[in-house]
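User: Here's a chain of 487 residues. Predict its fold as tokens.
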Amino acid sequence: MLKKYITNHLLIERMRSEVLNIAAGRNMLIAPDVLDIILSDPEPKMFINNILSSMTKGSMFIQKADILSFLPTPDITKKEVKPVAPKNKRQYDISIVPGTDITGESMCEGKVDDFVRYFQSRYNTIRDMLKRKTGATMSISSITSSMSREIRLIGIVSESSMTKNGHRMLTLEDETGTCKVLIMKDSPFIEDVIVNDEVIGLVGSVAKDGKLIIASEIIRPGVPSDPWEGSDSVASVAFLSDIHIGSHTFLDTKWKNMVSWLKENAKSMDLDYLIIPGDVVDGIGIFPGQQAELTIDDIYEQYNTLAEYLKEIPDHIKMVLQPGNHDAVRPAEPQPALSEVFCKMFDSNVMLTANPVCLNIEGRNILTYHGRSIDDWVAGVQKLTYEDPINVMKEMLERRHLAPMYGMKTALAPEKKDYMVIEKKPDIFVTGHVHGAGSCEYNGVRLINASTWQDQTDYQKMHNFNPKPAVMPIVHLGTGVTSMKGF
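Assistant: Prediction complete.
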């Protein structure tokens, strides 16, 4: 009994301290009798936040009169009361865009038919986008050497190489056949980045020998350059990627500085949403020798510790958490949300989703992707680098695909549809993975690379890569104004 009494007493004292700290964060004091009433509620922290949200500026003390409207009866000495939600309680507007979350929808078995269906899905979806730009309806099998008119095709690139004379040779494929396409060395498109398995539109003509198509134009689906249209939303969304709980290089002090800043400022600036795009823990056995770099070598304890860290973030913030290549889900993308065994560790204000996924938050379309395919883009395209992931994201948008190159570092599951296709233009597009921090506006899209909360690792030192940790990008959903808050 004594042990139980001590445990209960410690829990009450801890809650008392947390409630007082919440009030102190708003420069307010709580009368002792009011504090007792708040602590008697089943959800004291929610209760005090509701009260604070209704207080007028300039108030210093929370008195009995200030909480009467939150109680079901005027008898404030009653212990079994439950708070009534204030009239101005925040109404969240967040949902997963249908058809963008693989969780519970995976049906692939790795059979040949799965791969055929997967690439057909990619081709058909992007072809429809390109048709609107090119008007192309011609199939490869319909081309003959007798044609002298302009040819407009849509196909998937199965091979790309440079000839000894400096021309570029493509092999293009559609559902009816394949053809060779020559891009002359004096063409304005000779320097274009062309990667295997992307879907492109082509304007050209048949060579005299009938064996080649001479390209005059390469067309990609891209995104229209419509500007950001303002809305009446007053909310902001923040991004925190690559937390890597369990790593010995996790930046604990900087993380706590960030949480303290949120407690002091998030409410007043209407920072109501927080997106966490993957690598939330460091994982187990992700790379050789990782064991020596872990402070937590149990995957369940890593997620439990993460859950405790997230509980320190103000309760009014709705969080979205998705996996990355370090997390305890399948490595093949698209990755489903964390399993139920981990989900139950998190509070109800944490939404767990797939990677990638599209979210609708207060009317804004937000595409959030951990970014593993950046490895393939950097390895396959000479001009792209880890130091500038924003340029990689632009290439993804131009192709309307997050990971077009099949068979490289990024494992891709042949699902019934290609979830890596960017079907709708996003308002905000966020990635993580490379531990950089950056933002820019591109054709009306806010591009965000969401930093990290892990210091430079031994692997990064070996490759002379310097991360940009402890930066939190914030986007105002009404105006689109983007800021980078460093800690």
